[in-house]
Batch of 2 targets.
Target 1
Amino acid sequence: MSSTLYTSIGELVTCDGPDSGTLAGVAGDGVLGIVRNAALVVEDGRIAWIGTAADAPDSDTRVDLEGRAVLPGFVDSHSHLVFDGDRAAEFAARMTGERYDGGGIGVSVDATRAASDERLRELVGRRVAEMRAQGTTTVEIKSGYGLTVEDEVRALRIAGEFTTETTFLGAHVVPPEARGDRAAYVELVTGPMLEACAPHAKWADVFCEPNSAHAFTEDESRAVLTAARDAGLELRVHGNQLGPGPGVRLAVELAAASVDHCTYLSDDDVDALVQASDTTAATLLPGVEFSTRSPYPDARRLIDAGVSVALATDCNPGTCYSDSMPFVIALAVREMGMTPSEAVWAATRGSARALRRDDIGRIVVGGPADLAVLDAPSHLHLAYRAGVPIARALVTPSGTSED
Ligand code: NIG
Ligand code: FE
């Protein structure tokens, strides 16, 4: 087994210090567990040693990082990468005042159904490569642009070639051909579609919005989620994106790992998330507010109340065609009142929690060497140098990180 020493790390953000378990009540950089002038040893794709450069042990190979910062690889816990087709005109229309209502999803469904397996595989591969080139080492990928039994299974199979974090989203929208009979579509999703998809998925998700012709009501969403739970899947929810609604309440009631968007929350929603903070994370997706010209969620209110907050891209062709976690971090800092250290924590350890993972999102001896390196001396530069490609996944020998 060969070992590699990474040394002259200006700032090692471990997200594994004594105060790294939660954002609640931790001021300053405490959550990040920073070691300065650091070094670490990787053996066989795993972290074998962490400390200061002055104390570093001998190893077979030595890589001098020349003062760069090293962080846990970003965990993008919400994406819809399996799609074909272009909706740039819809984005342009929103920039001149059009509202997002989910109606454009049908355009992506048509294009995705028409694409070959090879084409979809190539598109997902390209998007995952873009993510790694920006520091992401774990990504969750949803189905949801197939919406037939065959097309949903196909999307999950392809997603499974790139990640173990696969999510069945047959309840993304009611597809055009099923509009006349919503109940029949919910029966399909909770019956034959779920049965065919469950072996290929770890998670199930639903787009729960009470006042949308396209998404699912509270009762429909509860039916989808309970059937999925009975089939052995863990739960996530799209909720409170387009307006106030039952998504958060339902996610907490069913002990979902995360409720995502959380743009419009009542005081009761926040209280419910505080009570459920060990179980259910609030995943904020500010790239969506950027791309839909909507108000940003109030991250400060959530963090100050004690909610477990995560950040992700939601990369999809409609509400956010960006797969950049550094962009999300910059938006969280500039537009949502998060400090740079809160945003980095929420994009790593916080999003790992939203996937119920404690092996990733932090740098710990024995853990996988899923690392991001910055062409910069500190994590502050992620927001400070917004739009500049300073972050990338660190390629480690026999590791899982690649450019
Ligand atoms: O998370 N809101 C539902 N689903 C996606 C958007 C999908 C689309 O517009 O294609 C989201 O925002
Ligand atoms: Fe989404």
Target 2
Amino acid sequence: MAEIVLEQVSKRFPDGSLAVQDVDLAIADGEFVILVGPSGCGKSTTLNMIAGLEDITAGTLRIDDRVVNDLPPKDRDIAMVFQSYALYPHLTVRENMAFPLRLAKTDKAQVTAKVEEAARILDLTQFLDRRPAALSGGQRQRVAMGRAIVRAPKAFLMDEPLSNLDAKLRVQMRTQIARLQRRLGTTTVYVTHDQTEAMTLGDRVVVMRLGVVQQVGTPAQLYDLPINLFVAGFIGSPA
Ligand code: ADP
Ligand code: MG
């Protein structure tokens, strides 16, 4: 598990646009933090910088006290879950979930044990020999989660993982993700533009606008004491 600390982190894209500006954020070991804000406010860019998929153009990123600004993604011990499930269509559920372990050259018996454990946790045992095309959207999303948890990474980063699901399934999966996170206790940063998701899922919520963090707090703090009209309006509390 990991502590993740951003100090004055900014991202300027080569075209000159400043997508993320001076973000200060300390995420505790085991914490479930939500990044929320309207489309284009810099949520994905922030997540991608933590993952190492985008480089940081100013500031410092630490994972467990180590500066990781220049560390490649594969050395960060972080698992990313995207909204497009990015499953391999030609591989079975079992093979999809085993994939990161095979890359890490884990021995066969261990791979089997870990995949089966993850399948149990995610209620996928009966689907292990199917291919993704024969699964529902919710089942596919669970396989994507399974692929993230088999490695027991230090942290999970999730970018709108439920946005491809219909409303009913989204609510179900939301509960499952919250339960999974509590059970594993893995530090999680979860991006969404959905206010309800933001206010029900995590320990703390980071509200962003135009690349700038507006407020960080528990859902109760944001409801009770929104720092400005934007936060009040965005989370839907009376200003
Ligand atoms: P969000 O995930 O909150 O919707 P993003 O982090 O994807 O927002 O984008 C933040 C801002 O950065 C947006 O204005 C977007 O257009 C811009 N942006 C994202 N990726 C690039 C890129 N590769 N080059 C230039 N601008 C980008
Ligand atoms: Mg995004």
